[in-house]
Design goal:
The protein is built from 17 helices and eight strands. The longest helix is centred in the C-terminal third of the chain and has 19 residues. By secondary structure, it is of the alpha/beta class. The chain has two domains: 299 residues, 3-Layer(aba) Sandwich (Rossmann fold), CATH 3.40.50.1820; 67 residues, no CATH class. Helix 1 links the parallel strand 3 and strand 4. The two termini are 36 Å apart. The chain has an eight-stranded mixed β-sheet, sandwiched between helices.
Length: 387
């Protein structure tokens, strides 16, 4: 399977349209790109992850093939909060109310904003070669200004940065792909051309600059408000960074990237990978191995002992909740599933009478129309599962 085999969709979120490619089965995993990339950055990672999960590769608002809604004086339409809403809406329309998310660079900042604003939706969070926006600005110095030049250049007032993007898109892409620690040979001519084409479009260039302006203003405000209110990322967080890039050396006084993220999250783990800033494109297999160990989609042999025990405890808790359901909480009677538990008990089940049960079924089906209005409908008749 390649990224070309993924199903293509353009999703109307109510605020804009989001372009996605999706494939696979199982738990939902959303992949978000950075600058100057598009969803194509996941071409080596997504097909491998799709073997054991449902993978959704999305273009961020204002990037790639996604829409470019009008902005505002405070840049709010291109804040990470607005971009996070896009992704939550898109994933729900694809049938994933709760899912995991991995973001690289700009996408990492949208991803952690999703975890802060929508904690009930995010199962696990992965951030790649990125630190929180406010943490980066608070520690900005001459090294930051020179190495992370898009942060300041693209945040300048229009139309200067927009004209720089559209007029020199090829030079900007070549500089990023060759100077940010990853070998330029890792990017095919077709990928390079796709990244350049996206920057040359005037509407997308303006949207990208608005996103950087938001990062210098309203995104910082949102981060500070969260910190003042004590809001933290509560889901498990994986941090991966380039062993050859700034994050490997700049923040040693704060115990590195993991130390910075522990200021924002409770459950943090991570490691450096032997690649440049674009390591998901440069070393996709190693990236997938690190993500697979964290998300535990498929191979339990990858898990450490404490991680495996945690997964078994979570599984047993889910089975017990199902076993002990009763009345209208009862969905299906599965004694074989309950038999996997170490304790052998006979649950006391109260079965609803037929009239009450059927009314409950109708209400449940109506709730699906409200929660998943665009999900596919099937007409197959129900068949009693084998006993």
């Amino acid at each position: 399977m390649t990224l070309d085999d993924f199903t293509v969709a353009e999703i109307d979120t109510g605020e804009t349209t989001i372009f996605v490619r999706h494939a696979g089965r199982g738990p939902g995993t959303l992949l978000l790109h950075g600058f100057p990339e598009t969803h194509l950055m996941w071409r080596g990672v997504a097909p491998l992850l799709a073997q054991s999960s449902t993978v959704v590769c999305a273009d961020l608002r204002g990037y790639g093939y996604s829409g470019c809604p009008p902005s505002a004086a405070d840049h709010r339409p291109y804040s990470k909060r607005a971009m996070a809403r896009d992704m939550v809406a898109a994933m729900e329309m694809l049938g994933h109310r709760r899912f995991s998310v991995v973001g690289h660079d700009r996408g990492g900042r949208v991803a952690y904003r999703m975890a802060l604003d929508h904690p009930d939706r995010i199962e696990r969070l992965g951030v790649l070669d990125v630190v929180p926006i406010e943490s980066a600005w608070e520690r900005a110095d001459a090294r930051f200004a020179l190495a992370f030049w898009p942060w300041s250049l693209l945040a300048q007032s229009e139309p200067l940065p927009e004209r720089v993007l559209t007029a020199t898109a090829d030079l900007l892409v070549d500089h990023a792909l060759s100077e940010w620690g990853s070998p330029a040979a890792g990017f095919s001519p077709a990928i390079r051309a796709a990244y350049i084409e996206a920057l040359r479009d005037s509407a997308h260039a303006h949207a990208i600059c608005e996103e950087y302006r938001a990062a210098a203003t309203i995104d910082r405000k949102h981060d500070r408000e969260d910190r003042a209110a004590g809001r933290r990322i509560t889901c498990p967080l994986l941090v991966l960074w380039s062993a050859n890039g700034p994050l490997a050396t700049w923040y040693t006084g704060e115990s590195g990237p993991i130390g910075l993220w522990r200021e924002w999250a409770d459950d943090v783990r991570g490691q450096a990978l032997n690649g440049g800033h674009f390591f998901p494109e440069e070393i996709p297999e190693q990236t997938v191995e690190a993500l697979g160990r964290f998300f535990a989609f498929w191979d339990l042999d990858l898990l450490k002992r404490d991680e495996l025990i945690a997964e078994v405890k979570k599984l047993r808790a889910g089975i017990r909740a199902h076993r002990d359901s009763t009345k209208h909480e009862l969905c299906w009677h599965h004694p074989h599933l309950w038999g996997l538990l170490p304790e052998k008990v006979e649950p006391e089940i109260a079965v609803p009478a037929w009239p009450q049960f059927l009314r409950g079924c109708l209400r449940y089906r109506e709730s699906l129309d409200q929660q998943l209005p665009k999900a596919p409908r099937v007409t197959e008749e129900f068949e009693k599962p084998p006993t």
